[in-house]
Each structure stands twice: as C-alpha cells, then as structure tokens.
Design goal:
This protein is mostly helical. The protein has one domain. It is built from 14 helices and no strands. It has helices at 2-31, 36-68, 78-105, 111-118, 121-133, 139-156, 165-187, 193-215, 220-225, 227-248, 254-261, 264-275, 282-298, 303-313. The longest helix is centred in the first third of the chain and has 33 residues, at 36-68.
Length: 314
Amino acid sequence: MQKNVKFWSNLMLIGAAFIWGTQVVFQKIAAYEIGPSSFYGLRCVLGVFTLSFIAWIMSIKEKKEESRKGIEHVKKDTKYFLRLFKVAPLCVLTNVLGNVMVQTGLAYVPAAKAAFLNSIYIIFVPILSWIVYKNRTSVFTWIGTVVAVIGLYYLCMTDSFSIAPGDLIILGATVFFALHITLIAKYVKEFVGVHFSIVEFITASILCLGYGFLFEDLEMSQIMHVIPSILYCGIGGIGICYALQVTAQKYTDPTVAALLMSLESVFAAFAGYIFLNERFTGRELLGIALIFIAIILAQLPPLSDLRARLRKQR
C-alpha cells in the first residue's frame, strides 16, 4: 500500500512538472501581447479560484474522515487566520518579483532556454538555507554550483564573452524564487499548504493587477488575445500544480520530489522544440546538460547521510 502511495505521489509531481514545463510556451506567447505584471495578476486570479475549490473539496473530505474515525472536527481559530494573513503577504513579494521577471525575460529569451536558466533556483535554495538558517549544506550542492556556473557559461555566454539582458533577468528571478522557498520553509508548517497559497495569490493578484492598470495600460483587448495562456497558466500552472505539489510532497522523499519537479525544464525544452520551433546549438546543449547535472547534484544528501543509509541497508 505504501509503495502505491509513493508511486501515485511521484506521478503527481511528474504531472506538475509537465504542466509547469509546457506552460512556458503559453507564457512566451503572452509576453508579446500583455504586460508581465498584468499577465501574472490574471493568472493569480484564476489560481485563487481553482485553489479555493480544491481547498473546499479537501475540507469536506477531511470532515468525513474525522466523522468516520469519531473525531470532533476542530475549526481554525481567529489567531490562525490573523497569523496567516500576516505571514503569507510577507512571502509573496519574492514570488511576484520572480514571476514578473521571468515573464519579462521571455520576450527576449527562447522558452526552453528560459526554463533551464530558471531551474537554477534549486541550487540556490540549500545555499540560502545555509546562510539564513545555518542548515547543513551538502558538499554535492557546492560541486553542483560550480558545475552550474560552467553550464551557464556555455548556455548564455557568446563568443564575445557577453551575456544577453534577457538571460540576466531570468537569472535574477532565480534568486527571488530561492528566497521565496526559503521563507516558505520557515513559515508554512504553521498552516495548511493550500490556505497559505490562496492568501499568497490573492495578495499577488492585487499587487500585479494594480500595477498593470496603472503602468501597463491593461485593456480588455489584451486580455482577449491571451485567454488560452491565462487559462492554462492560471488553472493549470497555479491551481492544479500547487495542489499536486502540496499533496504529493507529504508522501514522498523530498530529494526525489525535487528531482522529479526539475523535469520541468526538460518538458519545457520539448515543448519549445515542438510548438515554437526552437533549436539549441551544440554549445547551448552542453550548457543545458551541465545545468541538469548540477540540479541533480544539488539534491543529493550530505555524505554522512549517504553513509548512514548504506549502513542501515547492510
């Protein structure tokens, strides 16, 4: 039974990675039609509705389970929600900045390349965790960081030793994504994951749409042009994916989860090749391969943990 739960959890994470990877195609299309803040704000609105529906379903299921076991259902008190509405908006700024920067960079960078550059955040997370919380960082993370830098050189640097502005924007976004995950790791254990995401995306939608109306001249004609992109990236990329991730990570190893979710960049590469006719040079393919190796290295546990596991198996 346990193996079946892990199998379906891992499959859910692969499904989330597929949606996240393929949504880059829709983001790329939208980048030429609508402002980055406006697009992300509209995505968040749909994401909030989808997550709210999922939270309602989960609540009904939880009450039925508690009733079956004869447990009295305990409602969340006022302190819980006050704390939730205080903490979640603090975390949202890093998420908004990261997503808006990616959406901006996509106007200048091929979708698949942007996805691989964006995946670098997985390496920054344990490093930031070590800096901020003094959590132990595996030697493999430091090796992965070096390999990633070499990969970035081959992926981004031209023969004239220059890096494109779009590449820099995407790389800047990875720092904000890593900060976002580091902050969530500190606070999310206090709350139901879906509740935390809903408040985050409500705040993000207000901030981004407010900015869009004021500075991006958001109009209905722009929205009509990108409706398919908003639907896929809002309902799928935010609503479904975050629900899949929150559910699946309860039942699978965190290292395995991170590796499976890093498949996002692989799916993005295939999507860019099939739908956008994007091609990589040999130099860029070498860079992508090194970045993917770096991502895998960064998820490996410390050597002491590996030795302990080997001893247990004996």
